[in-house]
Amino acid sequence: MTKPKQEPLIDLCRQRGLRITGQRRVILQVLDAADDHPNVEELHRRVGQREPGVNIATVYRTMNKLAELGLIERHMFGDGRLRYEPAPDEHHDHLINVETGEVIEFRSDEIERLQEEIAQKYGFEIVSHKLELYVKPRKTR
């Protein structure tokens, strides 16, 4: 699934009144450029390639602040590490390859419809949900 281009995190942070320091700017740019779901250690490594003096604690604090503001989503894909992505404009779900760790984003109108139908059947309305499918490649015979 190709991500639709959304407003840069730096602009969203400014709109929410978050001060943009030089280190935060680099962290936001790296996160915006990510086409995966990096954990803090991976973000720190990427940030360090652009701005060597950024401490990992600064990355942690920035990610916590972004989550508090609702600008990023946190995911735990079964490997024990929190992974991050900018909060998407449109809902999507994830396939996680248990052999490689690859994460594939997808959207299915049929799955969304079924979830609504099931919630209604039991007298509920969905306020939020995450669907993560843990997969492995099919074995060919």
Automatic annotation (TrEMBL):
Predominant location: cytoplasm
Record localization: Cytoplasm
Source taxon at top rank: Bacteria
Keyword annotations from UniProtKB, A to Z: Cytoplasm, DNA-binding, Iron, Metal-binding, Repressor, Transcription, Transcription regulation, Zinc
Oligomer and partners: Homodimer.
Family: Belongs to the Fur family.
Protein name as it appears in the record: Ferric uptake regulation protein
Organism expressing this protein natively: Pararhodobacter zhoushanensis
